[in-house]
From TrEMBL:
Its EC number is 3.1.3.18. GO terms for molecular function: phosphoglycolate phosphatase activity. One of its GO terms (biological process) is DNA repair. It comes from the Bacteria. It comes from Kineococcus aurantiacus. One of its GO terms (cellular component) is cytosol. It is an enzyme of class 3 (hydrolase). Keywords: Hydrolase. Residues 1-25 are annotated as: Disordered. Residues 1-14 have a biased composition (Polar residues). This is Phosphoglycolate phosphatase. PANTHER family: PHOSPHOGLYCOLATE PHOSPHATASE. The lineage of its organism: Bacteria, Bacillati, Actinomycetota, Actinomycetes, Kineosporiales.
Amino acid sequence: MSSAAPTGAPRTSDTPTPARPVPPGAPVVGFDLDMTLVDSSAGIAATMRAVLAEVGVAVTADDVWPYAGMPLESIVAGLVPGTAADGVAVLTARYRELYPDLGVPSVRAYPAAAAALRAPAALGGRSVVVSAKHTPNVHRVLAVTGLAGVVADEDVTGDLFAEDKGVRLREVGATAYVGDHPGDVRAARVAGAVAVAVTTGSHDAAALRRAGADVVLAGLEEFPGWLAAHAADLRDGERAVPVPR
């Protein structure tokens, strides 16, 4: 795994690529990025602390941690309450400017992330990454963690949260979505997909179940076993998932 973050702007597309077909009954699994596939907590905290220090606001990593998985604008607004919308926009832009250098190098993939991303393809299906992180930074994180070669560029989407993620997941025909945040559960509901939660983020199993997760896993190590059962259900026509709403 490389220790240096890519500095050039990664390839991105403003228009999502249409879903590639998979055989009937094959799993199409969406994955969240931060705190689901990768541990990005240190880099997010370091970048946020640097940005807010420039305007005289001191925060700690513990202050930032509860916001893991939320859109950047929500994190800024939560850490600096009362900031006007234009001020939030300025701080958000500064964060995105600093993140490639301050945040990306410390990101590490969870040990089972690559295997989890590969698992649907082994069953004839497809993996996609749908994240709240700014799309160019999603690609940077995937590159520095060695996951860029595991998921195709056209299967990566950023700048979406909660229900907006669900719209993209529905477009690609996702049968399941894996994430660490209650917003990811809502995304799965919109997509009509199974909501698979992992407890590697700031929300524990009880909170994720209260949010409506269909399945709660301790981490991605448990995902391949669950996926095998999910794929069997799909083949048997037993896709019992929530009604999109």
